[in-house]
Amino acid sequence: MKLPVVPDAERDLVINEMFGPTFQGEGPSTGRYARFIRLFGCHISCVWCDSAQTHDQRRYDLAAEQRIVSIEDVLSWLSGGPAGLVVITGGEPLLQPRVVERLVNAIRERQLATDIEIETSGTIAPTALIASAVTRFNVSPKLAHSRLRRHQRIRPTVLKDLTASGKASWKFVAQDVDDLDEIQELVSTYDLHPVWVMPEGTDSTTVLARMRVLADPVLAHGWNLSTRLHTLLWENDRGR
Ligand code: SF4
């Protein structure tokens, strides 16, 4: 996957979409009033990716899916609403470290958010400046059903760095109960806590069905269960 040319890597973000207000649909902040900045580009390609428009040229016209937006324009958009949760997602946001560093620190300085979350696959370590500015990393290491090879999806040194930040929450996408064994192996090997298990699915029927199957086994592991609230509410609508 080739990232587009970025005119100024310190000042401009390559974005897929900005949207909100809406609710954070996944993980520890589910249900919170939030605005989303979805960055363009991902260096891996999960077979079930729910935001493939950020990087999959076989399925999307990537030229139409990306735009260059300055940090100042993003800050201006954020200043138009009440400070709440800002979620920087993707794609893989940590592919644009310098400009994300500047963005999250500017959001803090101008008090445009009470909390900032970055959603990442856990394959690129955050910079120290990013780690100091965010509230939480929602880290989603991918399982074998992503059809990625293990070395593509599990980077031990990155998992260690994210754990050391003290700000990582681990959100695993599961399709069925068998996936919990794989999650347990990763949790035990890399000492990952807290754990959230979230059903894979882009329609409410699938999400609900998988949550019902996963609920008791997730409880038995002592883990947390996440829904996909935006999917339950709005199915697969873009920008919600
Ligand atoms: S890491 Fe995330 S954005 Fe990248 S392909 Fe996988 S699900 Fe999609």
TrEMBL record:
Binding annotation for [4Fe-4S] cluster: C42, C46, C49
Matching CDD domains: Radical_SAM (cd01335)
Cofactor binding notes: Binds 1 S-adenosyl-L-methionine per subunit.
Pfam families documented for this protein: Radical_SAM (PF04055)
Alphabetized PROSITE patterns for the sequence: RADICAL_SAM (PS51918)
The entry's keywords: 4Fe-4S, Iron, Iron-sulfur, Lyase, Magnesium, Metal-binding, Queuosine biosynthesis, S-adenosyl-L-methionine
Pathway stated in the Swiss-Prot or TrEMBL entry: Purine metabolism; 7-cyano-7-deazaguanine biosynthesis
EC number from the UniProt entry: 4.3.99.3
Residues involved in S-adenosyl-L-methionine binding: W48, C49, D50, G91, S140, P141, K142
Chain ranges of the Radical SAM core domain: 29-224
Swiss-Prot/TrEMBL catalytic activity: 6-carboxy-5,6,7,8-tetrahydropterin + H(+) = 7-carboxy-7-carbaguanine + NH4(+)
Amino acids binding substrate: F23, Q24, G25, R38, T89
Top-rank lineage group of the source organism: Bacteria
Class of the enzyme per the UniProt entry, highest EC level: lyase
Residues where Mg(2+) binds: S51
MF-aspect GO terms: 4 iron, 4 sulfur cluster binding; carbon-nitrogen lyase activity; magnesium ion binding; S-adenosyl-L-methionine binding
An annotated GO BP: tRNA queuosine(34) biosynthetic process
InterPro entries found in the cross-reference section: 7-CO-7-deazaguanine_synth-like, Aldolase_TIM, rSAM, rSAM_sf
Named cofactor requirement(s): S-adenosyl-L-methionine; [4Fe-4S] cluster; Mg(2+)
Quaternary structure and partners: Homodimer.
Family: Belongs to the radical SAM superfamily. 7-carboxy-7-deazaguanine synthase family.
Stated role: Catalyzes the complex heterocyclic radical-mediated conversion of 6-carboxy-5,6,7,8-tetrahydropterin (CPH4) to 7-carboxy-7-deazaguanine (CDG), a step common to the biosynthetic pathways of all 7-deazapurine-containing compounds.
Protein name per UniProt: 7-carboxy-7-deazaguanine synthase
Organism, as annotated: Prauserella flavalba
Name of encoding gene: queE
